Amino acid sequence: MIGDRRIRVSVNGTAYEVGVEPRTTLVDFLRADLGLTGTHVGCEHGVCGACTVLVDGLAVRSCLMLAVQADGSEITTVEGLEGPEGELHPIQEAFLEEHGLQCGFCTPGFLMATYEMLTDDPKPDEDEIMEVLGGQICRCTGYQGIRRAVDCAIDKLGGTRPADVFGAGGPEGPDAPDAPDADPVGADGAGEGSAR
């Protein structure tokens, strides 16, 4: 049996150095090892988009990426969108206001894909928006509320990049939540432990 491989990642602004099995997917690492369950496991084939997270600013299907492939990367999950006091990001507010969700299972993927799109182009045209939304599957809403939510998010942001609302990466500092089975890397860069 192959042993754990140590990786260093920054997740929502918190640095971790942990041991992971080489076959562990990024979505399983985020959910099981770090306790970040906002990223959902849907099809496990990269089709539905429920597991979309940002890796170094790019939207990726975390069910198709191994955790070891993220070594040295900065990862943002849906939990990383909230403000320092737990307030919703304008993109999240837009989805709430425009009923861009029903059961909510697909919502984290839509939020993260929208975040990446609006980072690349704060005022995308209709073709760009439909291309991004077409990469996500929702089985409940019929997409009308989701489409309205994207327009609402564009209006709320007013040309501002999504990361500039609260700062990139989510909660930081001494009040940042610790993951249940992983130790954050200390200020000196030395890890205090590993995933258990």
Describe the structure.
It contains 6 helices and 5 strands. It has helices spanning 26-33, 90-97, 107-120, 126-133, 144-157, 163-166, and strands spanning 5-11, 14-20, 52-55, 58-61, 74-76. The two termini are 17 Å apart. The chain is globular, with a radius of gyration of 17 Å. The protein has a 5-stranded mixed beta sheet with strand order 2-1-5-3-4, with helices on one face. Helix 2 (90-97) packs antiparallel against helix 5. The chain has a domain at 90-165: [2Fe-2S]-binding domain (DNA polymerase, domain 1), CATH 1.10.150.120. 39% of the residues are buried. Strand 1 (5-11) and strand 2 form a beta hairpin. The chain is α+β, with helices and mostly antiparallel strands and 196 residues long.
Keywords:
6 helices, five-stranded mixed β-sheet, single chain, 13% strand, 196 residues, alpha+beta, 5 strands, disordered C terminus, DNA polymerase, domain 1
| Total number of strands | 5
- What is the mean pLDDT? 87
pLDDT < 50 runs, ≥5 residues: 168-180, 186-196
Which CATH architecture of the domain at 90-165? Orthogonal Bundle
The CATH homologous superfamily of the domain at 90-165 corresponds to: [2Fe-2S]-binding domain
